[in-house]
Amino acid sequence: MNITPAIKAMEDQLVEWRRALHRRPELAFEEHETAAFIAARLRWFGLEVHEGLAGTGVIGVLRNGEGPCVGLRADIDALPIAELTGATYASEIPGKMHACGHDGHTTMLLGAAQAMAADPPGPGTVVFIFQPAEENEGGARVMIEDGLLEHFPLDSIYALHNWPGLEAGRIAMRAGPVMAAFDTFELKVIGKGSHGAMPHEGIDPITLAAQLQLAWQTIVSRAVDPTDATVISVTQIHAGHTLNVIPEEVILRGTVRTLRPETRDFVQTEMTHRAEMIAAAYRATAQLTYQRRYPATINAPEAAETARRAAEAILGRDAVQTDYAPSMASEDFAFLLEKVPGAYGWIGNGSAEGGRNLHSPHYDFNDAILPLGVQFFVEVARRALTGAND
Ligand SMILES: [Zn+2]
Ligand SMILES: [Zn+2]
Question: Which segments cross the bilayer (predicted)?
Fold first, then answer.
């Protein structure tokens, strides 16, 4: 593994930062202590610092004359999970935990900022983006709304997420969709309540809701190209409270995941159509509220190529995976990739056994991969700035 001596020498400090961040997890848009931690270090490196974008976002800027402008992004928020790792540096804040490794991402980008401040990777500008609220709240979108891309007109952008189940010392990077679009829905099926023993006097919304759930599943199995991964999950059904009463209405809620914008449009239209038509057939009504939360995370071919070559320069060809299937989970870096060509890859976090998966109370970021993450950011910035293609 090609890690420079300067980055190797940072390792103890990186572990210390990661564990300090791990002890003090903060939820979406409340990352005040985390933001102060980041800003203090960026200043210490001698970088230009901007605070307050999307509330708790922090930007560090390295200016080194004329040249391209490359963005590197880390997410900084934690989750409302009570930690069960028993680590000596476990969360000190009850009910909150860095269970997605954003403490590690923040540390890798801080390390990269320090390394590049000391030794600029090429002519141009590097923008270090510490983004709040990746989990559910779409902090990337809010940063864009707050003018991120007007203040810092990026030519390309890169990010890494740790990936349990991918061996430590490996990176996965490919062009095209890597994470799915994330939508949510709520369907209200309104029938006519009646006595449980006299269903003919009402319109049973529960039987109808059951049919609808199945009709939606056949959108995935019968109407979408089988090679175009799509998920419709009804995750809640709420109705009724008495054994012998057929209720007036049923609420179904859930989530939809798609990889292609056209499929996303199709699924939304088809879910609406089937709900309305099937309900109408039974003289009931269906009201579907469909919310588009995150778009799919789609890597630009050229940026993915730059990132792949950067990873291969550090790890060798065999340790860089390019033929993996996308995840049907989602990532708000997608909002940035809608505006700026870029690439998002996975850095192996090691085994996911023993519940050490993302969003698990047993999860922990693997400190051993911190120098690799730093080196990747430095190498990808160098290539983005100099156009080096070796
Ligand atoms: Zn997460
Ligand atoms: Zn995450």
Answer: none
